[in-house]
Request: fold
Amino acid sequence: MDEATFLDPKFQNKHSVTSPEALQQLLGDLASPEFLEDVAAGFAQAPMNVRLSPYILSRIDWTNPYEDPIRRQFVPVASTRLPDHPGLRFDSLGEQDDSPTNGLVHRYPDKVLFLALDVCPVYCRFCTRSYAIGGSTDTVDKEGYKPKPERWHKGLAYIASRPEVEDVVLSGGDAFMLPARKLRELLMSLLAIPHVRRVRVASKGPAVMPMKILGDTDWTDALCDAVDHGRKQGQEVCLHTHFNTPEEISYISRDAMDLLFQRGVKVRNQSVLIRGVNDDPARMTTLVKRLSAINVQPYYVYQHDMVKGVEELRTSLADSIELERWVRGTTAGFNTPTFVTDAPGGGGKRDLHSFDYYDETTGISIYRSPSVDPDQYYVYFDPLDRLPAAGRRRWADPDEHARMVKEAVLAAGLSGFEPATPM
Reply:
């Protein structure tokens, strides 16, 4: 096809693959029958749906799909799947426990997470909201956050009633999927609340469908107009996006980010640390530098959340800390991301190194988050296949599970504290 057609966001949306069967039909001879069977079996066990634009499909190396870092993020295969760690859960961050109204998460004193909708331009296999985002699958009945006016109004009313809330993250789902009119309405409603000082629009969109920023001028104008309106009132509106690999950055990404840069939109990036995708120093350093080159500030690199169904994508805390050592010092500090663990059970972001105790044999790390709850501790578990034999033997015995956690809590000196989530 010609370039103009490919760069049309309506074409990208219309021709996005939304079922495993459609993906198999589209790939045809590009992939082996054995690989396609592996994919079909992978989707049968997956917690997330499939939605792949022609653009993102074109970024995958179909001559070597098993090793491709983009394929790993969005297309599961059954042959690499590992059993879930006993400590995994779908809502690993406990967001539903911190929701004063449906689709609003209030954890930090001055920040809320506004989940405006439950659809995305692509469905990441590792999604921390696999309990809610996209349609239900064979393994998960989804909670869902439909973009209904009454639900939005309740969320806005809650924010307006809490003068301590200064920071709103607009997410979902993905704000990229909001019609321009709805995006404008929601952003302007948030900016009309006097005590809201910052609004962050969270979107994977620039990494998987950057032509929307170039071609859907109504949507881009809605974002940029909100940025300009907020700036005049002393409020910040910015875009937080999600590139995980250098392969996701193309000349189209560059042109889209250049446009936002010229129009005064601040863009920051949040990556997830994924095994076989970005977990070696060369790849992560390349990603950081390419982001900087297109005026996207590397902000966070998250330790993979403890969600079910994607155990083969997680890395150990020790490996992540070593990776951070290699990345730090390769570029300017303000363009170096902070590597964090989002503490399971609702502790919020913790610097990887800030654990109170870490046992590399059992893979148990203990964190505190006093500003969230001074009396609780939060536990992160390394994937079992990355543990030494002694650790794997202990986890093979269910009677040892609670004992190992108790040992770690005692070693951390936190025996008088409460667990954020029971083991």
